[in-house]
Amino acid sequence: MGLVIYADFGSAACSLASGRADALGVAGVEVDWRAVEPDPRLPVAGGRLGGAEREAVARELGALARLLLPGEELPRSLPAFRPNARGPVAAYAEAYGAGVAEDVRRLLFSAYWGQGLDIGSPETLRRLLAGAMLRGHSTSVPLSEFGLAVSPSRGPITMGAHRRIRSWAEDWRGLRVAPLPVLVVDGALPVAGETALRRLEKEIERVDAGLADPLPDPGRYPTMDDPPSLPWVSATGGPWRHSWMATT
Known about the structure:
It is a single chain. By secondary structure, the chain is α+β, with helices and mostly antiparallel strands. It has helices at 12-26, 51-65, 86-98, 101-115, 122-134, 141-144, 159-175, 193-207, 230-236, 240-246, and strands at residues 2-7, 30-35, 47-48, 81-82, 182-185, 191-192. It has ten helices and six strands. Strands 2-1-5-6 form a four-stranded mixed β-sheet, with helices on both faces. Strands 3-4 form a two-stranded antiparallel ribbon. The protein starts with a strand and ends with a helix.
């Protein structure tokens, strides 16, 4: 069985779906997670959530609370802003091609919904995702040598990621269902929103997946025997900063 999920990192429902996708993946179910940008008109720096928007998010979280399974949690505080989705979608598309998509997905959801970080910022993405990107198998130097995931303009770095983003968006729009997340199971008709979450619940029950199974730290850096050069450490940072200082 194969599942395809279209989702937005700024959606609480998609964050819940992400945890369920992890549980299914550990249980051996193939899950193809595809990131999309629901509102391309959002300002490049994102936008603060007004009173009405915050109330809407609070209502959504209240509705999602009724769907929680044992071991699941929702964010304890409301976000103050909505990030521009271009950056996180581009970062995820690069991670998908580099073989570290699952870790980057977890990092993005945790950063926004757990820490309130601006995941639309290229600098935030650089700090957050460097470890995961350096563990990937991309042949692109900015990714493999410096751990970058997006360009300074928040776009993808490689043509492969660019094509992936365009393909995901076209496929998602062609389904003509809302809201996110949108789930397609074995090529059947898509389901969306709460219906998608309930279907994921059924799949978890079917394979007896564990929601509390521990996963490795998604932001971990690769192991290195020798500290890299000072210019590299200055640009990338990470745990090597102290290693380099200790050798000089």
